[in-house]
Design a protein that fits this description.
The complex is a heterodimer. The longest helix of chain A is centred in the C-terminal third of the chain and has 17 residues, at 134-150. Chain A has helices spanning 3-14, 91-95, 104-112, 134-150, and strands at residues 41-46, 50-52, 70-74, 82-84, 118-119, 122-126, 155-159. Chain A has one domain (35-159). Chain A starts with a helix and ends with a strand. In chain A, strands 1, 3, 5, 6 and 7 form a five-stranded mixed sheet that branches. By secondary structure, chain A is an alpha/beta fold. Helix content of chain B is 39%, strand content 20%. Chain B has helices spanning 2-10, 22-28, 50-64, 85-90; strands at residues 15-19, 32-37, 72-79. Chain B starts with a helix and ends in a 5-residue tail after the last helix. Classes of the chains: A alpha/beta, B alpha/beta. Chains A and B meet through helix 1, helix 2, helix 3, helix 4 and strand 7 of A and helix 1, strand 1, helix 2 and helix 3 of B.
């Protein structure tokens, strides 16, 4: 059995009896970059469950239906102000080096070297576990996408955890 | 992750993602993904491994610029060899 089958069976047995993975037959289209990387504004969207400590409510990692909300991570945040809440991995390990799941310092260094033109003012964080994804697909993710469009983001790099 | 990426693709954003589990990405078919065989929670590489963090991010930038077929999952050289954490995670025996 592969991971998808093991995870599916685990969720069915312990959480949601009728769980099934969402599938699509047709790939979405890749939108070509409209300018050179050295002029592009880049944002990171992570499913690490990152949030701003003292400002944001942590994700609900104990809800069997997951948590489809998202948090805004300002690009100028100090990394020790970032918290992680996620049921699927050891967040204590990742907090020792936030770039393991949210590579904002790495992105900053690429900007300082002129490899990318700009860093978006807002990165976005979801929590990866969302077994009932209807609202994620039809409301939450489009809302997040609109924020990225408002920020004139040229490239979104999506980093799972 | 792929579901969110699909929404952004449809909204007209240029996207590239990292996939930790190829079979899940194959089900969802986002526009473009890099397959990285790292453990959950160490997507970009080990704690303090800034060289690998950078290399993966650079590959995201490089492949984002290329003319490739939609839905492609690009194999990469990033494979976890430090211990069996990834294998245990994929069997749901580790966190």
């Amino acid at each position: 059995m592969n991971f998808a089958e093991i995870e599916r069976d685990y969720i069915r047995k312990n959480l949601i009896a009728d769980f099934e993975w969402t599938r699509f037959n047709i790939a979405t289209r890749h939108i070509p970059l409209k300018k050179p990387l050295s002029q592009c504004r880049v944002a990171i969207v992570s499913t690490s469950g990152a949030y701003v400590k003292g400002k944001d409510r942590p994700f609900d990692s104990r809800n069997k239906y997951g948590d489809d909300s998202f948090r805004i991570i300002p690009s100028d945040i100090e990394v020790d102000k970032i918290g992680l809440s996620h049921p699927g991995y050891d967040t204590r390990r990742s907090l020792k080096d936030i770039d393991t799941v949210l590579p904002i310092r790495t992105l900053k260094s690429l900007h300082q070297e002129g490899i990318i033109g700009h860093i978006a003012p807002r990165h976005i964080s979801f929590m990866g576990y969302v077994p009932k994804p209807e609202r994620l697909i039809w409301q939450r993710a489009p809302e997040a996408g609109m924020l990225l469009i408002e920020d004139s983001v040229d490239l979104v790099i999506l980093v799972p955890a | 992750m792929g579901l969110i990426q699909r929404v952004f693709d449809i909204q007209g954003l240029t996207t590239i993602s990292i996939s930790l589990v190829r079979e899940l990405t194959e089900m969802v078919k986002p526009s473009r993904a890099l397959f990285v065989e790292h453990p959950f929670g160490l997507t970009m590489g080990d704690v303090g491994d800034t060289e690998t963090h950078r290399a993966i991010l650079m590959d995201c930038l490089r492949y984002a610029q290329m003319d490739l077929e939609d839905g492609i999952i690009i194999d990469t050289p990033y494979k976890w060899s430090k211990d069996d954490l990834r294998e245990r995670q994929l069997r749901k025996e580790a966190h």
